[in-house]
């Protein structure tokens, strides 16, 4: 199979979907690899490093898309890339369809096969291709939140860790999954007082066991969320419903109960966000204010640390990519139930329930397209 790796063109997106070691794995298995010129530079990988392992460096994105049977990306195709999608071509990337109707309809119209990293799911419920970026985003959420609490950025002027004689800041994390636990580790490590909320009692018990004493757990309901955000200096949205739009757990009216200059970082913005007032921003212009509350909502947070993120992401995506290339998408998805759940849109048909529900589209059973 011929694998194409175009340069990411989303604003300030410096990751790449395949590192040279991954390209070497594909070529060693007998596949061809096309990498757009300069595609790896943002993550510190030169064209020469790809050539050295047998990849072909291609001058334009158009050529990569035109020639490749499978496209590997990091972020969803954006509008300038939609005309390049073609019938039967496999696109293997993050899509987050449920928060993007225009993208969903463009991929349906193209006839391409969309295999979404974020919905590949093991029998245990783990999302192996989302986990590494959730780990990065959870840790970054605290790093960015701490920065924007500084007065110079419009925050309330709170140091999360406090100092002797001065109480630490209050961090509230809504959602105790991968993002939530990584955010809690970072915030607790800084010395903040942390409250983490989740609807799973089993998960809360686990979090209570593994997190340090400056982290408290609370059951996630309307009363407890309101109580927590009233005290919060930093609120981190870490809610995930795999493949579906995130619920709005913090309402616009709730902001009036929060402290002026407090910060919201909504990591769930890719899936629509769990804060009603959230809207996607970029690394170029990451924040805005609503009712005196600073909102940070960069939709590709890990793109800000591309070296770490690219290595973490490709460690997870490469084995599945090799299977898709070796067996073809149909056989690979038949053989692996986890990969089969990655199918979202197949040759004009929506096959993932969360996407169909988000836009009231007809749902086709994945088995019928396999």
Polypeptide structure, described:
- Helix content is 34%, strand content 16%.
- The chain folds into two domains: 2-120 and 306-369, NAD(P)-binding Rossmann-like Domain (Rossmann fold); 134-304, 3-Layer(aba) Sandwich (Rossmann fold).
- The longest helix has 22 residues, at 306-327.
- It starts with a strand and ends with a helix.
- The chain is built from 13 helices and 15 strands.
- Helix 7 (201-210) links the parallel strand 8 (193-198) and strand 9.
- An eight-stranded mixed beta sheet has the order 3-2-1-4-5-6-14-15, with helices on both faces. The chain has a seven-stranded mixed beta sheet with strand order 9-8-7-10-11-13-12, sandwiched between helices.
- The protein is an alpha/beta fold.
Overall structural domain count: 2
> Which structural class matches the secondary elements?
alpha/beta
Molecular shape: globular
**CATH topology-level fold name of the largest domain:** Rossmann fold
CATH superfamily of the largest domain: NAD(P)-binding Rossmann-like Domain
* Beta fraction: 15-25%
Rg is 21 Å
The helix count comes to 13
Mean of all residue-level pLDDT scores: 96
Q: What is the top-level CATH class of the largest domain?
A: Alpha Beta
Low-confidence stretches: none
Largest sheet: 8 strands, mixed
